[in-house]
Each structure stands twice: as C-alpha cells, then as structure tokens.
Known about the structure:
The structure is a single chain. By secondary structure, the protein is of the alpha+beta class. It has one domain (about 5-80). About 30% of the residues lie in helices and about 20% in strands. The chain has helices spanning about 5-15, 50-55, 95-105; strands at about 30, 45-50, 65-70, 75-80. A two-stranded antiparallel ribbon has the order 1-2. The chain has a two-stranded antiparallel sheet with strand order 3-4. Strand 3 (about 65-70) and strand 4 (about 75-80) form a beta hairpin. The longest helix has 12 residues, at about 5-15. It is globular, with a radius of gyration of 21 Å. Residues about 90-105 have low confidence and may be disordered.
Amino acid sequence: MSEWKAIQSDVRTRVGWRCQACGRRGRLDVHHVIKRSRDFDLDRLVALCRACHDQTDAPLAAGRLIVTPLRDGRFTFDVAHGQAKYRWPETQSCNDQLTARRVRE
C-alpha cells in the first residue's frame, strides 16, 4: 500500500467514515486544505463526501465551501458567497440583438 493510500485510510478512519462537513456516510475523498499541497500533515487533511468536496471549488456565486483547520483533525466549515467573476449581459430582445449585430458589422 502506498504512503498516500495509508494516509487516506487514516484520515477516513479518524472521522468514523463520515463527511466532516455534512456527516454523510459513503464514499469519502481526502482533501488538502491547502491547495496543491504535497503536505501529508493529518491536521491539514479533511475527509469530505463528493458533494462537499466539489463545493470547495465551486464558484463564489454558487457558494464555495471554505475549510479552516483548527487542530487535532478538527475543522470549521463555512459557505462563502460572492459575485460571479464574470457578468453576462442581460437578456436582450430579438430586435436589440439585431441592432447590436448591425452595429458590429
């Protein structure tokens, strides 16, 4: 068994095979609290179900799960909301779209 597989097993066992954010049982991913880290410090590795893990990379407009390490394998979980990075123009009527197209041509 590789070192990473053993560490993942330790993290999942530590939390009783429950998502640390929502408490759901099932498949758990082990997430590095510090992105792209190769650090295997157990205090910076959190067990999350797929839905919560996906939410750690969600756009702020949809609500992003923020995981903050405390100590001893404990974390706080907050959902941050913000504006979308890109704002799309309001929906235009067909006449407005035709006018805009003519102006660009």
